[in-house]
Amino acid sequence: MDKQSFKHIFDDYFDPLRNYIYYRCSDEEAASDIAQDVFMRIWEKRDQLDAFRIKPLLYKMANDMIISHYRKQTVQLNFEKDVYTEEESLSPQDDMQFSELKKRYASALSDMSEGLRETFLMSRNDELKYYEIAERLDISVKTVEKRISAALKLLKEKLS
C-alpha cells in the first residue's frame, strides 16, 4: 500500500469510522483518538495488508480498541478510587514519605540517559511491548531488553 492509496482509504473511511466509535463510546475526543490509532496501525502494517479487504479490518480494529479503551478506563477509575480513599487515610508522615519517593523517582528518571528513559517510559507509561518499542526506535528487541534492565537496575539503586 503506497501513500496515495492510504490517503484514499483514510479520506473514505476516517469520518464513518470515527462516527461508529463515537456511537459506541459517546466520547468525541476518545472517538477521534481511537480512529487515529486505528489508521496509525494500518499505516504501520501497510505492507502486510490487502487494500481490497480493508473496511472489515478497520471496523474490527476499532471494535478491539474500544474494548481496550473501556478496560483501561475501568482500571484507571478503580485505581483513582483506591488512591482517593488511601489519600484520605494517609498520615502526615506517610504523605511526606510518598512525596519524597516521588522526588527520588523523578530524580532517577532525570539521571537516566535519553535512550534508557525513552525506552523505559514507552514500556511503562505507553504499555508498549518490547517489539513495538524496537520498531518505533529502530533498534533490536535485545537492545530494548538491555535498556529496560538497566533502567530498572538504576531505579532500584536510586529508590532503595
Which labels suit this protein?
160 residues; mainly alpha; Rna Polymerase Sigma Factor, Chain: A; Arc Repressor Mutant, subunit A
Q: Could you characterize the architecture of this molecule?
A:
By secondary structure, the protein is an all-alpha fold. The protein has helices at residues 3-25, 28-44, 54-89, 92-111, 114-124, 130-137, 141-159. It has two domains: 1-89, Rna Polymerase Sigma Factor, Chain: A (Orthogonal Bundle), CATH 1.10.1740; 91-160, Arc Repressor Mutant, subunit A (Orthogonal Bundle). The protein contains seven helices and no strands. The chain is flat, with a radius of gyration of 20 Å.
Summarize the structure.
Helix content is 84%, strand content 0%. It contains seven helices and no strands.
List the helices and strands and how they pair.
Elements: H1 3-25, H2 28-44, H3 54-89, H4 92-111, H5 114-124, H6 130-137, H7 141-159
Helix pairs in contact: 1-2, 1-3, 2-3, 4-7, 5-7, 6-7
The average pLDDT score comes to 85
End-to-end distance: 51 Å
Structural class based on helices, strands and sheet pairing: mainly alpha
CATH class identity of the largest domain: Mainly Alpha
Quote the beta fraction: under 5%
Under CATH, the topology of the largest domain can be stated as Rna Polymerase Sigma Factor, Chain: A
Query: Helicity level, as a percent range?
Result: over 70%
Main beta sheet, described? none
Order of helices and strands: HHHHHHH
Number of domains as seen in the coordinates: 2
Total number of beta strands: 0
